[in-house]
Every structure is written in C-alpha cells, then in structure tokens.
Amino acid sequence: MIEAKNLTKRYGEKTAVADLSFSVEPGKVTGFLGPNGAGKSTTMRLLLGLDRPDSGDATIGGRHYQDLPQPLRVAGALLEAKAVHTGRSAYNHLLCLAQTQGLGTKRVDEVLELVGLKEVARKRAGGFSLGMGQRLGIAAALLGDPSVLILDEPVNGLDPEGILWIRTLMKDLAAEGRTVLVSSHLMNEMAVTAEHLIVIGRGRLVADCSMDEFIERSGALSVLVRSPDAEALKEDIARAGGTVTQSGAGELTVENLETGRIGEIAAAGGHVLHEVVPRRGSLEEAFMELTRDSVEYGATGGTGATNGKRGGTA
C-alpha cells in the first residue's frame, strides 16, 4: 500500500502540497488527477524520496522508499521518460539499472519484449521518439517485477495501439494484486482505466473515492428524451422546473428532473414518448465541476492567452 500522511511541501513562498493524506490500495488502478499546478508531480516525488516533505510522511509498504534495500523490486516508477543517458542503448540503460538490483540479463530481455522495444534494443536511446522513450521508461518501471507502480502520464506520446497496450497492462497488473497509481490529464483515458480516483487541487485533497462516486458527486446527470411532441413537451417540462435544451429534431436534454417525473409530465400532457434515457455525466465534466475552484493556471478567454505560466508543481 502507498500511504501519504499529512504531507506538506513548500518551495519558497509557494506551497506545492498542503497537509495531504491518502492511501492507494492494491488490486485496482487508482487515477491521480488534478489541474496543472495541483501538486501531483511533487506528491509523486515525495512518495519516491526524491524530495523531502517539510512535514508529514510518505511510505510504500510501510517503509520509506530510500530505506528499501532493492527499491525497484518493490516500487517501479515512471516520472520522466527522457531521463535517460542519450548515448546508451535501451538494452544498456536497463542493464545498468538491473545490475544495481541484482537482476540478470534475462529480465532485461523480458521487459524489452514486453514493451515492444526488442527490435531496437541496441539503438541509442537519444534517437528514440517520444513514444519509444515512453516505452523505455515503462520497461524500467517494470524491471524489478514490482508490487507497486507509480506512473506519471504513461500514455504521453503513445499511438492508439500503445495507449490500448498500456491501459491493458495496468489493468492486468492491478488484477494480479499490485498497487497501481497513475496520473494523467487525459480524462477520457482515465475514465476507462481507473476504478478509484484521488483528486487534488492547490496541493489539497479534493476527492478520494470510486470513479462512479466521483461522477455522481458532481451532479452531472441528464436525461435524453425523444418525442414527436418535443416542442410542446419542452414547455411542460420547463414549467415543472426542468432545465431543457433541444439537442436535435424531436430530441430534448433535460436536467434537474428524474426520468419518472418526466414520464408523469408527458402522460399528463398527452405527449408521446419514444425514448427516455438517463445519461451519466462524463469524468471530464465531473472533474471540471469539482476542481473549478482549484484551477491555478487557466485560460482567460478565447484568444489563447493564459493566466500565468505553468509552474513546477504540476
């Protein structure tokens, strides 16, 4: 299990993480979400002992990462895929890491094949594309066959086949009972990968719950209604307190009313219904709603201007 207890980290006057507590359990993929500047990367660095907290504690399996005698056998991490000696081949990069953990060449060959880099194993990593570099970073994270994986933006630079591959891999590893914590800005991808979410904003915890609960908490629920009497039905629904938009010919989207109430309104008005379907909001909609007050770096309008530059605590 990964545990963060009252973590606080400041850089000068900037508080990157503020009294943050959560735990990541094995057996499921846990998504780690937050707007730019929320403190996700800083938190991951604290978990891996790359930064020291000003207060609080971070442990993996009950121990500090730096106290693990062979850390890659316990926790594999991908924080920066391009953090590789550019003059080394993919094989030699992994071999150097393997030798520090008492791992043999057989394991190097296994992970190279697993991530699809077997054919380019002897090529210099400096010539790799972003997607290939990402695969090499994932190979390094998997090298020690760890029980814990901490992955920061693992699908960055991957093509659709690669995205499907890493999604399936993370799910399979979690199904084996491993602990998988993954951050991403791609909400659509997180929606089909993660079962549990930890969401932070401005360094503080916003949510720690299942995917379904997170979306339900946002209230992002609407009802699709199809009727040949859409125009008249729209007026009746509005009078009953529903928020209605006409999304197509004979098609309405209704908010603030449940399906049963919509059916009662239609029956009372003599309106024919062809379809009434509740639609759950998307993860993206829920994320935007629940982190609205936590956005630190956002657009100011339609001209492409931004409210400040991206900081170093994403």
TrEMBL record:
Transmembrane keyword on record: no
One Pfam match: ABC_tran
UniProt cross-references to InterPro entries, sorted A to Z: AAA+_ATPase (IPR003593), ABC_transporter-like_ATP-bd (IPR003439), P-loop_NTPase (IPR027417)
Keyword list, A-Z: ATP-binding, Nucleotide-binding, Transport
Boundaries of every ABC transporter domain copy: 2-227
Gene Ontology MF term list: ATP binding; ATP hydrolysis activity
Family: Belongs to the ABC transporter superfamily.
Name used for this protein in its record: ABC transporter related
